[in-house]
Amino acid sequence: MSHSRRLSFLLALTAVLALSPASRAAEGLYLTWNDCALAAKAAQDVTFACGLGSVRFLYCAFGVASPVDSVLGVEVVVDVQHSAATLPDWWRFDPAGCRAGLLTAEFDFTGQSACADFLFGQATGNLLGYYPTLPRGAANQAHIVAAGAVLPSAGYRQLGPDSIYSRAPRAVTSS
């Protein structure tokens, strides 16, 4: 393909993409403790001591504005920032923190959440990382990344605007 044809093709493709309606994957974002945002026991604000021996569940959920098809998985990023100069001990999962190595992520919500599980309990996933001082380098910040998916052979999933979907690092563990 000649340079001018390639440029014409790219311009045409850009024009088509620019005219396509954007998919809004963040119609609603929900971050709650104990259960998904739809549940009566869901709480937006709780206080925890650094003591060991308990498990706390953080649920991340989302809704979409319009249908989304061909979904196999999700990557979840949670940025934590505290109003104090440093993160409270409870959020310290780094080697120097009181919860070093105790953060986990789960992607099977079968019977656990009031929100929809679009991966139908078939997802596998894991915590990809906990990064203190990210995203902007301050001591009162942390960056948590998790991902979960199903194999393509399990079938693509569809998301509708009439549901709230629970996904994410579900378990913040301190046992």
Protein model, in words:
- Helices cover 10% and strands 33% of the residues.
- With 175 residues, the chain is mainly β.
- The chain has one domain.
- Strands 1, 2, 8 and 9 form a 4-stranded antiparallel beta sheet that branches. Strands 4-6-5 form a 3-stranded antiparallel beta sheet, with no helix packed on it. A two-stranded antiparallel sheet has the order 3-7.
- A hairpin with an 8-residue loop joins strand 5 and strand 6.
- The N terminus and C terminus are likely disordered.
Which helices and strands occur, and which strands form pairs?
Blueprint: H1 3-19, E1 28-33, E2 54-63, E3 68-71, E4 73-81, E5 124-132, E6 141-149, E7 157-159, E8 165-167, E9 171-174
Antiparallel strand pairs: 1-2, 2-8, 2-9, 3-7, 4-6, 5-6
According to DSSP, the number of beta strands is 9
**Gyration radius, in Å:** 20 Å
Find the structural class using helix and strand composition.
mainly beta
Q: What global shape is seen?
A: globular
The major pleated sheet works out as: 4 strands, antiparallel
Spatial separation of the terminal alpha carbons: 61 Å
- Give, in order, the helices and strands: HEEEEEEEEE
% residues in beta strands: 25-35%
**What ranges have pLDDT less than 50 throughout 5 or more consecutive residues?**
1-26, 168-175
Total of DSSP H or I helical runs spanning 4+ residues? 1
> What oligomeric arrangement do these chains adopt?
single chain
